[in-house]
Amino acid sequence: RFEIQAEDDAADPKQGTAAAQKLCDSRVAGVVGHLNSGTTIPASKVYNDCGIPHVTGAATNPDLTKPGYDTTYRLIANDNALGAALALYAADTLKLKKVAIVDDRTAYGQGVAAVFKKTAQSKGIQVVDEQFTTDKATDFMAILTAIKAKNPDAIFYGGMDPQAGPMLRQMEQLGMSKVKYFGGDGICTSEIAKLASGAKTLENVVCAVGGSSIDKMPGGKAWKEKYDKKYPGQFQVYSPYTYDSTFVLVDAMKRANSWDPKKYIPELKKTNYKGVTATIAFEKNGELKNPAVTLYTYKGGNKTPLN
Fold it and tell me: CA-CA distance, 252 to 257, in Å (whole number)?
């Protein structure tokens, strides 16, 4: 029988560690979370120090698994896979020559932008401008005007949808309607269509999510029907991964016949679980083995897989 203890990290690193400490002090059996890399990375040390495993279905910065904690597991492709997939699509499929890069100065935004930049340059794409903003900003006119003067084929944005939506609107206002707009899983949501408020530039978006599209997930379609029935309008891009993260912990506890982390962590390492998103197994450092990446665009306001 499971009971939930929920904490809100407010996407803030300090609150992230405070929330993690609270969960440690309560001696929870395991943690599903966090959402953002900026909170997950500092929280992971807290969980390691108190010996409680956590599985994230959302945080994608590669630095998360670098310390090699046996309490840290990721159930989704990391930014190395996402940033590289987008840069390869820009170079090989769209044959783009010039890009501008903007990031929101968070661990996630900077991380995914750095990988995109490195891969794009290795493919001969010229980075004509680099700008940054914050994860609270809503006015991008100044940076977009500076970028427009450099005449790029595309903008890559490292950040989340609350900034990407208004940025797309402002690109349209500045007549940047032919400029492609790339981003990672942080912008690859159904919410971005609402936040862009009907801007035609939404159709220029190419974004990447770790994992397969719902239709290609082994149990995706049937699971989503069940989920939508129980929680109408609640589905988010990370929902199936967070669901699987929970049951990966449950599966390890069942195999260990214990909810004591000391006893079930060795089983967690040996995970081979048929989930909704994939058959889940982990590398030594807690990364997902053989992660898939799906690229999406928006047609008529709807998120549509490209591959």
Answer: 8
